[in-house]
Every structure is written in structure tokens, then in C-alpha cells.
Amino acid sequence: MIFKHRFDWSKAFLFLLFPFFCLSCATTKHVSEYYCSYTVINRSIKADSAVAMMLSPYRESMDSLMNITIGYTSIPLSKAQPESTLGNFMADAIRYRAIQMNTSVQASIINYGGIRLSYLQPGAITRGQIFELMPFDSKLAIMEIPGKILQEFCDHMAQYGGWPISGMTYQIKNKKAINFIT
Length: 182
Hints:
Layout: H1 9-24, H2 49-66, E1 69-73, E2 77-78, H3 85-101, E3 108-109, E4 119-120, E5 123-126, H4 127-133, H5 147-159, E6 165-166, E7 169-173, E8 176-181
């Protein structure tokens, strides 16, 4: 025996909307008091040995990957606006990679707020430091931009004090970008 059931979507739709109709009839409640509790996380909090032991193999595995030296710097790299050694390093590195992908690339721009370390001391640069420096899963976007749009974007960067760039220069005057050189 074959049993056939016809599903009625109109009833299902009403069934799904029923809670919303019921909730819309409720009276509005206003918050008269708000309480917030928080814990400051610092070195005064004792480590949980069971959690530390559970995480130990993962920590060792990550440390072995993140402590690999991938480069060196002979000078300190610091973050500042409108220009800095750390911003220039990052913009130059991204431009270098972009040129490997497309030889017509002329410049690179990095969002200043995306630089998450303020300083790298002279010496070895590790993979872990790069992940700290740029923790976001960003993608490299290569695009052709008309001059008018580039001017607008550079004015936007100038309004916020300048962002790291490579392959072009400009000056900031009255929060506007002037004197482009590419």
C-alpha cells in the first residue's frame, strides 16, 4: 500500500507565523535598571591546569609553526601616520606580491586600521608576528581605478591622516590629497 500525503504550504506558513503574531500582541517592557558584571583578565587569574594540559599539544603544534623565522629587519618597524616604517614595509610587501600576480600593478594601499601591531623590533620576523600584524583573512584585490576615483579615495585617506601606500606618493593639505606622483 502506498500512502500519499499532500503537504499544505498555506497551513505551514500560518503555523510558522503564529509565534510572531502572538509576540506582537505582548505589551512593551522598558528596562529601568541595567547591571553589568565583568572580570578583568590579567596575570592575577590562576591558570586552570586541566585546560592547560588539554591545550598543550595544540600549543606546541602552533608554536612550532608560528615561531618559524620568515625574514629579518635591521631597523625597528613602527606604526604611525601619515607614513611609517611598518606601514611602508607592509604596503611594499603587498605590492611585491601583487606584481607577481599581475605585472601591470603600479601601487598598493593598506587600511591603516588593519595594522594590528604598533612595533616590530629589529631582528627576526616570525610567521606568528605576521599573523599578529595582519590577523584578518583578507584577500588581495587587484583593480584598475580611474584617476578621478583614485583622487577621491586619496582624499578619503588624507581626511583620516593618511594610510600606508607603495608605488605612489601624495601630500596632505587641509585634509586633501595633493601633488600625486606615481
